[in-house]
Known about the structure:
- The protein has helices at about 30-45, 55-60, 65-85, 110-120, 200-205, 425-435; strands at about 5-10, 15-20, 50-55, 95-100, 125-130, 150-155, 160-165, 170-175, 190-195, 210, 215-230, 230-235, 240-245, 255-260, 265-270, 275-280, 285, 290-295, 310, 315-320, 325-330, 340-345, 350-355, 365, 365-370, 375-380, 385-395, 400-410, 415, 420-425.
- By secondary structure, the protein is mostly beta strands.
- The strands form six sheets. Strands 6, 9, 10, 11, 12, 14, 15 and 21 form an eight-stranded antiparallel beta sheet that branches. The protein has a six-stranded mixed beta sheet with strand order 16-20-13-8-7-18, with no helix packed on it. The chain has a five-stranded mixed beta sheet with strand order 1-2-3-5-4, covered by helices on one side.
- The radius of gyration is 25 Å and the shape is globular.
- The termini are far apart.
Amino acid sequence: MIRYLLLLLLPSMLYAQEQLNYHLRDARPNADVQRQVTSAFRQLTNGEEVVFDLLLKKEKRQLSLQQQASLARARSTMLVEYCDDVMQLTPNQVMVTTVPFSCSNNPASASNASYRQFATASSGISQLVLTKSDDLFLYTGVTDSLPQDDAQVFTLDPNQSALVIGRNGTHVIFREHAFRLDEDSVCDLVTLKLWEFYTPEQIVMGGMTTHADRAILETAGMVHMEAWCGDRRLELARSITLKIPADRLDGRMQVFYGEKKHGLENWKAQGKLPVGFQRTGDLVRDEFADQVLVAEGAGKDQGGFESEVMESVNDCYVLKSTRLDFINCDRFVDEPDPVDLLVNLDKSDKVVARIVFADLKGVMPGYYFDNSHTQVKFSGIPKGKSAVVVVYSILPDHRVQWGVQPVTVGTDREVTDLAMKTTNVEELRTFLRSIRWDASQ
């Protein structure tokens, strides 16, 4: 197979087009294709981009246009996953464009203007475009630590079973000897720290989002846990059970673990960990424990705990986890026609920018879209959803400068008049508490 490279020299951008060495009619990126993509990206300098032709010459001769479109689309999807998971590229470095059928025979010969015109068409042959723009991508609201004031602290005996109940109703069930301890170490008491993220206020102010690479998630609730013996952070020796309270039960929910990526927790599905249901009135046999620890403010109606069998007092998801740290009960949001939203800022102060959906239990992060940090972009968000854009920054005197703008995704493509005001942090928290996620969602 002969690979060709065509360069179009333009005033401000270098475009390159490469033919990828796929196996005939195989959508999977083989090792040769992976090497080509990785090598081509590494050779780019800032401001350059490379366009990958996803069809072989023989496929263009033998396949119908619809077959070509289907194969190119499948290849682009798998290559985007490779760019995300293996190459760790950022959202503004990877783009799938579509060349209309009328232009697909000679896409590289178009001028810059016509290239941009046909590259955004809605039907045709998919191509992969990689752009070297490291200095442009930076998520807003990057944080290295959770608010310590929001931690709920419990002390438990590691040699006994324990039931821990958080303020928002999270139940965590530890079996006896649940923590991994060195043979020579002595640990009579374990300090467990629990953070809960169920509401827009808790998620936004806790520095969390519901994004999984390029996908948006709808959450039932997320937690973070740390176990300490003195100054030693402990890991689990045995799996734990979590119960996440639910307004409604959805069979599409999965267990996700958080992994730091680009400065934020990025959620990864754990397919081998099942999610079950527990309905109000069901007989519960797994919450009888040697220790029952209930957070202050958790509410009185949390069950009996004095007997080995009791009735569930609410609907909840039941999931297993083999680790502590960040755990999420979510589902992927199927969005066939995602769109972008651009937010213009008056100045380039470091901000936190989030879009909070009103009819979807999700919060997505925005990232800076220009070198001056005066534009923030939300990418791949679901069209037609009602949402609120929230932008804020913490000032040196601990007050907060913030602004909000209701939007309808897709109808509103750009926010240009975001009014900012300076108040204490509690006023921002009060506004976020006013965003109510409908129990019927």
